[in-house]
Design goal:
Layout lengths: L13 H26 L3 H46 L4 H11 L2 H15 L4 H8 L6 H16 L3 H50 L3 H6 L2 H24 L12
Amino acid sequence: MTSDAPEPAAPATEKQALERLRLPLFMAGLAITCVLWFGAGKPLLAAAFFAAWQMALMVLRGQSRAADALLEERYAVEAIETASRALRAGIPLSGMLQILAQEARGEAGRSFREIAQRESLGEELGAAVRNVLVRSPIPALRAFGLSLAVQVSAGGNLAETTDRLATSLVERARVRRRARAIVAYSRTAASVLAVVPLIAVALLCSLLEGYAEALLENHSGNVMLALAMLMIVAGFAAIQRLGRIEPLPTERDA
């Protein structure tokens, strides 16, 4: 079984966009740090700004990884639903895998195309499924891979098993969407609370005479600004982590 169809172009994800901006954002933060350090003579404030800038970039990278994980999980569920419909229509296992290799998107599509390539090179289907799907970082693909491996080795009603798996995954995705809607308020509040101090400081500097000098010219004011910047970013990152619905990227099932 071979797959001659070209791999469909995957849409640009948030992670890919952030990776393209990673170096420019780092250089922008480094440039502002150099201006604060050497131009304004504020090494403490410059170091605090650079640390806060890097922590903010880490938060953005974490959010983009979570968004990409959700997208890949959705592609995997779509592939399993397609497999369920194909098996209920009476298409054999080899034909179902051929359809998934041609139509599945994202990591799911790459996994099924790899299975087709391994089988065309003489590897047994069960071994190809275990080496690709069972070892996939996507939980839905691992569950589907285990179902395929059991069916290939021991037999059974794969259509019914796949249908139940697809139904449970769709319900799981629905529960996760509801959970994300529940924690959306805390994440929005965290974003607002992170921006309000910056606006407040800017307004106070423009309205109160001597306020800007007290913060920017005095050593104690620099210490207060540095601690405030670090605490704002650290608190925002902690709230985002506590409100996380998806598992950590390093979490792997046995």
